[in-house]
Amino acid sequence: MQRKSTFKIFVLFTIVLVNTGFLFGQNWVVPAEKKAKASPFLFTEVTSKQGEAVYTKNCQSCHGNPGKDNALKSLTPQPPDPAADKMQKNTDGEIFYKISEGKAIMPSFKNILSETDRWDIISYIRSFNKSYTQAAINTNASTSSPVKIRVKFDSITKKLIFSAKKATKKDSVPVVDAETEIFVMRYFGNMQLDSSQQTNDSGIVAFSIPEKLPGDSTGFLKIIVKMNDDATGEKSDTFKLKIGVPTIVPGLTANRAMWNVVSKSPVWLLATYFSILLGVWVFLIYVITRLVKLKKLGKETK
Amino acid sequence: MDNNKNLYENAVSDLLKPIYPNRLFKIWMAFLIVALGVCVYAYTIQLRDGLGVTGMRDYVSWGMYIANFVFFVATSLVGMLISAVLGLTGAKWSAPIARIAEIIALAFAAVAGLVIIVDMGRPDRLLYVFTHGRVQSPIIWDVTVVTTYVVISALLLYIPLIPDLKICSERLDKAPKFQRRIFKILSLGWTGSDEQISLIKKCTRVLAILIIPVALGIHTVTSWLFAVTVRPGWDSTIFGPYFVTGAFVSGCSAVIIAMYFFRKNYKLKDYITDMHFDKMGKLLVLLSLVYLYFNINEFLVPWYKLKKFDAVHLQEMFYGRYAILFWGTQLLGLILPIILLLFRKMRRPSPALVISLFVIAGAWLKRYLIVVPTMEHPFLPIQNVPENFKFYSPTLIETTITAGTIILTLLIITILSKFLPIIPIWETKHNQNESKED
């Protein structure tokens, strides 16, 4: 009896261990509804070509050239080769989710690449799989009616009020339950403000904005709004709002410096260089004039 | 007076005699030209296929060419030492070897510029160095100062030569007509009037003073190409004087070697005497001692501290991959020559020649040791690269091209020393007269 329970515990322990390993190392669970997500357009040679450009810029440094098995081996977990089975056995929706969300060392690209870019990448990845056939495309999104987004800053509550409406034949109706995010444009990318939220029944979300965000010289900020609704697809818009602190940032190459271009090199350096150069060459030119005189003297005596 | 005149006449015929080409000269020239041809062929391969034919890769991007460049700039500095420093201090003994030193200076400085072009993968883009060069970059300072130094060296060779060119055009009756014409044109209608003499003296003096800061500048700036970086082995505040003294050492040995061959082949025993070898030997000891002092500073101080990255570098030099080369260079190229040259017997022509050959070989290898090991130890880790990216070794083509630059220098020296009187004739006479008047 005693032995049997020890054995049971051992088996249980092994199962747990193997599963945890599987969970952390291998398995990347994608929510069922995201798994089934399909591309809004048909994968063609053109989309695959566009995807290749995006892939080369954003993915290749870790995942390597598809099919060449030259992904970065020093990373843990190791990034899979896109042409390998490990990647190809995912559904399009799974790959889309993984690119968008990221996990551990795989970065999230949803704020970096547009949905179209992400689908283009998948189109490119699939071009390495001969047995792949594309599932039915998400026609909903492509035939959706135009959505109008509005953004307004409420100076009392210090909140950014976002509203989205979809135009129908007669009227316009609010876009309900759409995932919405806002970003502010910074030097090297877009910074997300607040967390992503769902539009309410009136199609409205209120985002809180941090105080004292540095703006341009007159206090303007570029706010990027992204809304994603399964019915209407992704919609993104940019607004310029005067809600930042006016900031004058001197350009990195505005002043004279050693690292700047020649026309903006330090005065002391220019003065030193050219005065030495001139000083030496004045003497050399003097010597040459003496040689000319020497020749004249030779002619005169003749 | 008559006796004196005879002496002068003898001297003129002695000193002009080597100018007629003999068989040995033709064989030597043929050898140099054929050898140079092979090297030029190697360079055409590099031009066609790019710098990939050399051993240089992403990490070691400065190899044998740059080491060779530093060696060339270094050796050219001797012109300033002998014709300016010794000349201005009134050391009369150095007058007969001043022209040898100037010829060496001009040849090495001019070819140094070519070595840099050889190191460029796309020499057709050379013009961009000038059109897009940045005043903030030591490379531009180097280009400026090397060019200036070549011009000063050429003038310093040419101006004292003017009276001798006149003598050549008059006295070389067996030489071809066009050669005498060239001599005549170049002598600028020299008549030997007092006014002309004073002009020549004035010009020589101006140039002799001017060349001192420029020569110090040329090699200090060359050292800055390394010293303005933070890399272990280069990040040093004494790199300027360390390079300048090292330069005098290699230049002095080059002059001793040249003196030996000119004396033997041009039969100039009466003009380049044992005394000259003795004096040059002493000069070489003095300069080597100063250089040794800088070497001790350069290696002992970082070795005492052993900062993280310096330690990696110094271990490779002291008992790693470069140990044999490093200790061989220091012992055979510096310490042993110092000890030997302290003895009078070792400063006689033949032993002085052998010692100088060791010194100059050591000087070349020393430049290699300054350039290459540091490049192999970058601060960033080297990863995921082929094996030949990690360790540099020069290829056959690279070595041939480097040999070509040395052959070209020998060719220039040979031609200049053959078609010009290697010992100043007019000056020798002028000095004799002046000392008689004293």
Describe what this molecule looks like in 3D.
The complex is a heterodimer of chains A (302) and B (438). Chain A has helices at 2-26, 32-35, 45-58, 60-63, 85-88, 92-101, 115-126, 139-142, 267-301, and strands at residues 147-154, 159-167, 172-174, 179-185, 190-198, 204-208, 221-229, 233-241. By secondary structure, chain A is an alpha+beta fold. In chain A, strands 1, 2, 3 and 6 form a four-stranded antiparallel β-sheet that branches. In chain A, strands 5-4-7-8 form a four-stranded antiparallel β-sheet. Chain A is extended and about 120 Å long. Chain B has a single domain, classed as Formate dehydrogenase/DMSO reductase domain (Formate dehydrogenase/DMSO reductase fold), CATH 1.20.1630. Helix content of chain B is 75%, strand content 0%. In chain B, helix 3 (64-76) crosses helix 11, helix 3 (64-76) crosses helix 15 (349-375) and helix 7 (138-158) runs antiparallel to helix 10 (194-227). The model of chain B has no long low-confidence stretch (mean pLDDT 89). Chains A and B meet through helix 9 of A and helix 7 and helix 10 of B.
